[in-house]
Amino acid sequence: MSNCIYVIHKDGNRWEMSGRKIAYLKVGAAKGVITSQCNDYAKDKVFHLDYCAPERTDEFKKAFDEEYKRFVIVEYVPKT
User: Fold this and answer.
1) Handedness of CA 9, 14, 17, 22 (dihedral sign)
2) Longest C-alpha distance within the chain, in Å?
3) Nearest by Cα to 8 from 68, 65, 66
């Protein structure tokens, strides 16, 4: 088992959101949180479009990618 923790940063600062942990023991858990947050963001961005509109998928992906680029996972290891 690794001794490092993973912390999510957004726009260069540690990301804090009510109801979310600050540190994660596995990088996959941190990535899952980022994906969930980006999905929520993208859903809000395309909410105004008709559910069956063909451009909805493209706009969703564009908004998701735009938000995802703002996140970085930083690995912290204990001092030895």
Assistant:
1) positive
2) 56
3) 68
Query: What's the whole-model pTM score?
Result: 0.86
Total residues belonging to the chain: 80
Q: What are phi and psi of 38, to 5 degrees?
A: -70, -35
Residue by residue, DSSP assigns the chain as ----EEEEEETTEE---TTS-SEESSHHHHHHHHHHHHHHHHHHHHTTS-TT-HHHHHHHHHHHHHHHTTEEEEEE----
* Separation of CA 41 from chain center: 9
How far is Cα 35 from Cα 74, in angstroms, rounded to an integer? Answer: 16
pLDDT digit string (tens) for 32-58?
A: 999 999 999 998 988 877 777 778 888
- Spatial distance between the Cα atoms of 46 and 38, rounded to a whole number of angstroms: 12
17 alpha carbon, distance to own chain's centre:
11
